[in-house]
């Protein structure tokens, strides 16, 4: 039954494709306004989700992600206002060439058309994602988790009213109300209606989408991020950066999960790093050489090096060269974010060139891989694939391009 | 057993990622040279394919595509020399920003890593595709059709020798020698080794890849291209352009397959167009109104409007407005190339904005959608999807990007 949503979305997309920046911004401001005005209703519907969640035995963390209060709704509304202030990513002339035969060929940015987004329990994603799709001129079909369905339905009807109120197609934003596994699979096969599908959530969700979708997918999020402490590292800087990258927020994809340390400095570096990590009781799992330096850390298995803990745990691998470090990281990383700590510019250059990840740092925390931190203004996700977008994705990554060719009768 | 090729390719890709432009160009010139030197051997192996093809009952067209002679081999070698002269698409600084915290963030182009290409009977693709992948710093795994396997094996060993002779990894270019359906499916699932998969060939092949691949795919090629003759068209120009777009080469994806004609001019336009198309005995299949103008044309069924004939056949749909034309085209086109013939600039603008295709023309033949004609210097295919690349793809489209972030101890 999702086909109806597809048909609606394709029709709405045609209206959006010619919508000017002003009307799109007015839609975003109308949504922000309506969210605030209807906050009691949103909270009421959210309470139903919370009640159902408690009955279903959701843990405190999940219930917290699910919860909407006045402040959070204000935050979501402010997000829409911010997006309205960003530059319109559509209609940008990217290239222009006049061919010897007189054809003028222009490459311009334009909306993709219809974007599908599959996500989990956070109802704020419903509005954030819709706002970014609207601003980039795309119709969107959102498929959130069943835990947030009542909140999502409320948010969706408020957004649809607001979008319609400024004169844009009401069904520019739509929600899949059926939260069965079936509906999710059906969405992944809607190649005739969706131009792109973006999964946001757990590694399991993302894998399921990549494996089952016939719609082109942008793979996001999973991050087994490494920091390499080079032979020439400033050890104090290394310890400070690692403490930040591991502990500032453990549940995020750009948190550091694994250290690689040069054998020439591990004797000095690991105790200093451990002293920092001990402040937050981080469990360290090291290889044999790491344990010979700090005997009280746990033993790392091979599986540890490939694990994204999202927890107060970190693995340590000892290497004898920059080459070995690069090889280890390219083997185990998910291509998200990696950092080298070194005072040696040549080693930094080599590391940055050879590490096969979306974002490669020299002397900084991996935690900066984020649309806001990169100055994109907003973020729809962090791509770990190489097609279309890589790293934090903003509005520009929600557009495609089109060639416009102007002739006066040219034939070949 | 394709896993070995995957492992080899990933290793070769690491060597290629740091290869400078000069060595990549020398590899291309060495390939060109080796092809000429070994042309007798190539022709000998090609004869085996031709013999097998005749025995298997391949038609004359397929046998012609399969055939290599001295002149064709020279053409393939010249292609490698041309690619060596193109700008290196890697290492280009695309964006640079210094953030308030002092982080310097650079976005640079870089190779994707490993590209898979699945194609059919033309052995020239083996070298063309390998040359483009090499120049863009990518390792490539080629999987050609069984009809060309002996030619492909010969071309591959010649290329591997040449690549190795300049000091690049020998296995930068590899061929899947098993041409069973199985090997093709296996390649589509090699997500751990392939960064991108490009199918080149029939609509059936492309569909199979899109439906089965877990590797990100760039969909190429299928083109149900339309030309719309507007109310304000220059009828002579329309007839000339349509004759060219339909008949200059019927078997290609940018050939015109369907006409959409405004009812206000069909009485004058269709006879003029028909007079041109009759010169090459093109079968015209029209709707009722078209047939009332030219009673001797065939009747078009609904299926005709969705058919990419690749033959001397064209369909005609009559519409009463620009809106109706746009709606019809967006419904039936494959998103490849469409053209409007009109003297009305406003109609042209609206058509070009609202038509949802990779390349939209005003007063020119759809046959120009081509890497060479667009000035890209070379072409790996024409993307009809919206992710990553849309329209003709050159070297730039075989690269991805990477963020390099330079800090001095920044933490979040």
Description:
Two copies of one chain form a homodimer. The model of chain A has no long low-confidence stretch (mean pLDDT 96). Chain A contains 15 helices and 16 strands. By secondary structure, chain A is of the alpha/beta class. The two termini of chain A are 46 Å apart. At the A-B interface, helix 10, helix 15, strand 13 and strand 16 of A face helix 10, helix 15, strand 13 and strand 16 of B. Strand 16 of chain A pairs parallel with strand 13 of chain B.
Draw up the topology in text.
The structure is a homodimer.
Chain A: H1 2-17, H2 21-37, H3 39-55, H4 60-66, H5 70-85, E1 93-98, E2 104-111, E3 114-119, H6 124-135, E4 139-143, H7 149-165, E5 173-175, H8 181-188, E6 196-200, H9 203-212, E7 225-229, H10 235-247, E8 256-262, H11 266-278, E9 283-286, H12 288-293, E10 298-299, H13 302-305, E11 313-319, H14 322-332, E12 337-341, H15 345-354, E13 359-364, E14 381-383, E15 391-393, E16 399-410
Describe the sheet with the most strands of chain A: 7 strands, parallel
Termini Cα gap of chain A: 46 Å
Spatial order of strands in the largest sheet of chain A: 10-9-11-8-7-12-13
Percentage of residues assigned to helices of chain A = 40-55%
Helix/strand structural class of chain A = alpha/beta
Mean pLDDT of chain A: 96
**How many DSSP E strands of chain A?**
16
Strand content of chain A: 15-25%
> What shape does the CA trace of chain A take?
globular
**Biggest interface, residues from each chain:** A-B, 66 and 66 residues
Key attributes of the depicted protein:
homodimer, 412 residues, seven-stranded parallel beta sheet
């Amino acid at each position: 039954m999702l086909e109806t949503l597809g048909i609606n979305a394709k029709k709405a997309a045609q209206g959006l494709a010619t919508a000017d920046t002003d009307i799109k911004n007015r839609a975003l401001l109308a949504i922000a306004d309506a969210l605030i005005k209807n906050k009691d209703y949103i909270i009421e519907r959210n309470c139903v989700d919370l009640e159902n969640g408690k009955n279903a035995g959701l843990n405190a963390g999940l219930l917290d992600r699910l919860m909407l209060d006045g402040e959070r709704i204000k935050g979501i509304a402010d997000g829409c206002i911010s997006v309205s202030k960003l530059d319109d990513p559509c209609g940008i002339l990217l290239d222009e060439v006049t061919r010897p035969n007189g054809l003028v060929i222009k490459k311009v940015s334009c909306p993709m058309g219809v974007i599908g987004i599959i996500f989990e329990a956070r109802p704020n994603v419903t509005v954030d994602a819709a706002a970014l799709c609207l601003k980039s001129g795309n119709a969107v079909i959102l498929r959130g988790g069943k835990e947030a369905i009542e909140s999502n339905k409320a948010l969706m009807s408020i957004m649809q009213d607001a979008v319609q109120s400024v004169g844009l197609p009401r069904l520019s934003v739509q929600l899949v109300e059926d939260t069965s596994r079936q509906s999710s699979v059906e969405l992944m096969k809607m190649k005739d209606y969706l131009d792109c599908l973006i999964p946001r959530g757990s590694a399991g969700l993302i894998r399921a989408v990549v494996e089952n979708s016939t719609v082109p997918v942008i793979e996001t999020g999973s991050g087994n991020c490494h920091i390499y402490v080079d032979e020439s590292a400033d050890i104090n800087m290394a310890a400070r950066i690692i403490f930040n990258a591991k502990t500032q927020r453990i549940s995020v994809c750009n948190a550091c999960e694994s250290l690689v340390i040069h054998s020439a400095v591990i004797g000095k570096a690991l105790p200093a790093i451990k002293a920092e990590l001990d402040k937050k009781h981080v469990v360290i799992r090291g290889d044999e050489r790491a344990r010979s330096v700090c005997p009280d850390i746990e033993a790392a298995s091979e599986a540890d090096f490939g694990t994204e803990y999202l927890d107060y745990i970190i693995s340590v691998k000892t290497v004898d060269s920059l080459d070995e470090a690069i090889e280890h990281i390219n083997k185990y990383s998910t291509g998200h974010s990696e950092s080298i700590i070194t005072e040696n510019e040549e080693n930094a250059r080599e590391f940055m060139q050879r590490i096969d990840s979306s974002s490669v740092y020299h002397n900084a925390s991996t935690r900066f891989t984020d649309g806001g931190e990169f100055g994109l203004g907003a973020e729809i996700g962090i791509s770990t694939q190489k097609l279309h977008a890589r790293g934090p994705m903003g509005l520009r990554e929600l557009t495609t391009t089109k060639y416009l060719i102007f002739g006066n009768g040219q034939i070949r």
